[in-house]
Structures are given as structure tokens and as C-alpha cells.
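REQUEST ID: PR-0412
SUBMITTED BY: lab tech R.K.
PRIORITY: routine
TASK: structure prediction, single protein chain
INPUT:
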Amino acid sequence: MRIRLTLAILATALTGALVAPSVAAAAPAPIIGGGTVASAPWAAAVFQNGSFACSGSLIHAEWVLTARHCLGGTMSVRVGSVFYGSGGQTRSVSATYGQNDVALLRLSSAITSPSVVTLATANPPVGSTNQIYGWGRTCTNCAPSSQLKTATVGVTSLSATDAYGGPAIRSNRGNGVAWQGDSGGPQFYNGQQVGVCSTGNGSTLQNYASVAANRAWITAISGV
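STATUS: complete
OUTPUT:
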């Protein structure tokens, strides 16, 4: 994630998984800890120039939500498979849009019989337990996880910022933590997507761009 993240160090930004909060090109990262997912029809693996780069979620038959720092090169997605390298439906990306560390990918054609996430209109409460998903690295220097992973995290602040200075939700590690490759992946609370993976240190915490704070923009671009 930008957690593809460059995260250099918590002192300057958050290191590691995601992105260190600076906006330089980031590399992907998967969840450290947590467990694998057997089914996630809304899951979207994001590729740059044919290589896995980030995680994302399907919000409409023709739209994928991911992180802005994941944009670049010739982009495509694989939707509906828990394995980023096989299964599901693949589509090229015809247009991209970004605000803060949130991005919308318009697909070249609609996903057949889509299963989409529900986007939240409010942030999760501080102290709540949330779920994060991604194909990021399973250890600091490991390769991305071939199978989608999930972990629980605990929300500690609604005053954090994402890699571009936008509003973000900070959470502490629960049974896992986001890391590079998890960038762009969703954070859920009560069955709704509340965040988009932006930055983290790969060990104790992560910052997810707030869906609620970017909700009006998402609707203006995608109609969702």
C-alpha cells in the first residue's frame, strides 16, 4: 500500500507497509498476521503494467475504489477472486480519478453479476473493532500474499491524515497489521467500507483514508 507504502519510519511518517506518508512512488504490501479469506466477490486486485500493485474493492459494476498512490502505468484489475493471480473477471482500466489518497478506477466494461461493497457515510467510532483486507506482504520483506488476507484492528483516532494529507482513520494492530501491497484495500465497520489503506508502519498501526470524508467526491465521479 502506499502501504505499498514506503513508510520509512514512524518519526517521519509511518514506515513500511503502505506508504510512508510521502507521495513518492510506493511499493505494494500484504497483511502481516490475520488470516486468509475464502470468499470475497467484491475484492479487486489492482495491477500496473501487468504486475500486482495494490488491493481495492468493487463499488459498482464499472468502478473500483483503491488508493491514489496506486495510480500509474497501464492499469487493470482482477475482480471476484481471493487469488490475485487467477480466477475472477479481469478488466482494463479506461480512466482514473484521485482525491486525497483515494482513487476511482473506471473499468473498460462492466463486471458480470457484480457483488459490490456498501460505502459508509460516517467514520467508525474510536475504540471500535474493524476489519481490513488486502494481498499485502505477510512479513516485512516477504512477497505479497497470493490469497486475500484479513485482520481485525482497533480504531484509535479519527484525526489522522493519509499519504496526501487528507482525513484518515488510524487504527492499532489487532490480530494483524497492514503492510505493502495492502494499499488501496478496504477497512470495514458494521459491514460497510469506512476506509482505504494509505500508510502504516508494518508493525503497530495503519492509516486508512476516510471514505466518509471523500463520499461526496466519490458520488460526484462515479454516481455511487
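NOTES: The chain has one helix and 15 strands.
REVIEWED BY: pending
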